[in-house]
Amino acid sequence: MFDLALIRPALLANLEDLIEAEGLQGSPYLLPSPMPPVIQISGLSEITYDVAMHRGGDENIVVVQALTSKAIDEAGQMKLDRLLVSSGPSSVKEAIQSDPTLGGLVDDLRVVRCSGHQILTRPGENVSYQGAQWFVQVETTG
After folding, report:
1. Which of 34, 11, 25, 38 is nearest to 105 (CA)?
2. For 82-123, how does the pLDDT look when each residue is reduced to its tens digit (9 = 90+)?
3. Tens of pLDDT along 40-95?
4. What pLDDT is stored for residue 142 in this prediction?
5. Helix, strand, or coil here: 20?
6. pLDDT of 17
7. What domains, with CATH codes, occur in the chain?
8. At what angle do helices 4-22 and 74-83 cross, to 10 degrees?
9. Strands 38-52 and 25-27
């Protein structure tokens, strides 16, 4: 069964080594006033119900977001470049997939895509952030 309240901290746990190595702040929820560099679990972007017949399973897309700096900053771009690599110790993708069952909470997960470099503005704020978003397909049964 998919339980986002349990999945958020488990995803963050997969990212702990990367968070420490890259000097990031980490949060299982969106921070009200993020101070980059930060990686946070944004939440669900989409759910596909009944991918196996008769409630056999769902596919859930969970979004992991990194903000590396406010506005455009060269150091933030360099940090984001490191996080976007597809493998290695600074790869967000590889860190997310380090335990694909999140300790048995889910059947499987994998990063299916990444937004790449983005300038993100949060609703109601006049602050722009450099960052990226990773879309994580989480499969569950029942």
Report:
1. 11
2. 999 999 999 999 999 999 999 999 999 999 999 999 999 877
3. 999 999 988 877 666 667 889 999 999 999 878 899 999 999 999 999 999 999 99
4. 62
5. helix
6. 97
7. 4-140 (3.30.70.1700)
8. 120
9. parallel
Residue 141: per-residue pLDDT: 78
> For residue 53, what pLDDT is reported?
66
Strand partners, 140: 58
Angle at 97 between CA 83 and CA 46, to 5 degrees: 90
The per-residue pLDDT for 72 is: 81
- As a whole number of angstroms, the distance between CA 42 and CA 65 comes to 6
Phi, psi of 24 (to 5 degrees): -100, 155
CA distance 92 to 54: 34
Q: Where are the beta strands (DSSP E) in the chain?
A: 25-27, 38-52, 57-70, 108-114, 118-121, 128-140
The 3 state secondary structure assigned to 109-140 is: EEEEEECCCEEEECCCCCCEEEEEEEEEEEEE
Tokens matching residue 77: 């771009």
Q: Are 79 and 121 in contact (CB under 8 A)?
A: no
